[in-house]
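In this supplementary section we document a worked example of the pipeline. Step one takes a protein sequence of length 673 as its only input; no multiple sequence alignment statistics are reported here. Step two produces a three-dimensional model, which step three serialises into structure tokens for compact storage. The input and output of this example are shown verbatim.
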Amino acid sequence: MLFFRKKSTLLLPVIKKSRFKQLLVITLLLPMSAYQINATDNRNHLMTTKVSENANAESSTSPINFSVLEQKIAQKMSLDIRYFCADIDGKPSVKTSLHCRQALTELPVELSQLISDTNIGGIVLFAENVVETAQIVTLTDAIQKAALKSSLAQPLIISVDQEGGRVARFAKMTGFSGNMAIGASYPKHGSRFAEQVNSTIAKELKALGINNNYAPVVDVNTNADNPVINTRSFGEDPQKVSELGLVALNAIQQQGIMGTLKHFPGHGDTHVDSHLGLPRVDHNLATIEQVDLAPFTWAIKHAKPAMIMTAHIQYPALDSSTFTSQSGEQLIRPATMSKKILSGLLRNKMGFDGIIATDALDMAGVTHFFTPVEAVVETFIAGADLAVMPFKVRTPDDIYQFKLFIKEVASEVTQRIAQGDLSLADIEQSLARLNHYKAQFIQLSPLSLADKIAQAQKIIATDAHLAIEQSLASAAVTLFKNNKLLPLSSTLLANNTINTVHLIAANAQELAALQQGLAQISQQDNIIIEHISHFIADTDTSNEQHNNKLLAQADVVIATLDVKMASLVDLGGMDDAIASYGTKQANQQKRTYEKLLKQQLKYTQAQKVPSILIAKGSPFLLASYSELVDAVLLNFDDRIYAQGTGFTSPGINASMQVIFTEQQAQGVLPVSL
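The serialised model returned by step three reads:
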């Protein structure tokens, strides 16, 4: 059936009353924005149909035109471009993208065209995309130029997980030691570091051309076995998490970057990583309101969050309705697909008027139970504005398949509109929210690319920013255990002198950071260390007898340990599930160092040589090491980075101050053990 348009008036043929309501839903798509495309080109595409089973047989070079609805659907999707392979091992890319591991650091012509053709709403960057400052600025500049060539001519939301600490995609930015470190600094410093850290991160992201940070995490970590949140949380106290989360959010947004509160309605009391399964929280309604929802409620009441990210988590007390999974199971609907939670609770009851973005839709908490099309449609019906990573584009053929995917989603959306599950008004309101926050936060710089790069290089990891990182590390270092050993100035030092310090490290970088920390103490505090011996786990070839001799001769042994619960979030996401996450080699290396460290600490203990452990990571995993040493210092998600010709660690530097001088550890553990 044909529809005719004359100015803004819709002319409809006479139809039966029973068909009018359904037909009107579709025809209302005709009025268009200032970015409208030719109505004559659109009219044959208004009624989207489900992509046929043999669509894959079509040529990937066949032109695909999009209807108005399909364009709107594309605007509500955000893709990652982590990898892209024009060919693999010299051969044309196959249709599956499982084997593509070629990091994308420059925007290829094919993906530039995809952005221009589809009007997608956003791009998510990962560590593979962000290598050097000039390279990142060039990449984001190319992405926005491609977006401006689309029919909408609107810039994209360019997102990244740069939380600081455990989850930080660009390693050469100022790093910081994470939210739990900020939580540990709270008793003495209040919200100072929540503001300084997040303001600094946002300044650097803006200089790189990134306009949306998937931060701050405001999950209240009440489960010691939580593998995916853990030290990403400010702590276990809902009031403190709420206060620090609000300050962090405002600090990000005051720099012109969209902040993202996550993971709604709360991921703090789970023991399942939603990258790998579907977690369930069985809190009663009172606990949910007082603990899980509290930081979100506080931020919505006292600020204007641009974005809230959903969690792929079951919350029976909030929505006990079920769905039939693709395997036929009856399961409780996860929050990301729950209209009661996203629309009824977050949008209506809590009054959130910003962008609701899903967590990555390629996570097992979704893909094990929904087909890709079902996942997108269900989250749109639930009330999400932005479907994040609903489809992997890794090869040229994937681009064609993604365009068909848009059509298939639009077709299913059309059917669900006809069934009354969704309305065009819902879609229009969603797009209005996206466009509002784009207009508020995305102002493209008029500078040339060369000037953008020069400007960014003056902002990334400046001395002033690195000084803030060191200040947080010093404020957060927490004395986990002290068996009357620290400070050494009161126990082992004579005239500020110690004879032999033995260092145990997992690798050469850790050893270099320890040596740098000792050198700094020697220079700043006139500490004299006559001799330093060491053991490096990954390169040591000496025998056990030799190592034991070094341990026995030492006046004090200082060891390092990186201890955390493994999660795909540390590496990036589901692409790592096959490629590198949990490989036998990686796990073996970790177990080998842990085994060697415990062996050496046991021997040290037997020889009655004082020992100190400088740990970074999760406080929940330190018990078995703590019993083997006299003192433990915790630096949360501290990092080691290159400095000059060596390496340094803010946390190790702070720990050395506590070990050798009268400087007391300022941090207070923000969780119960």
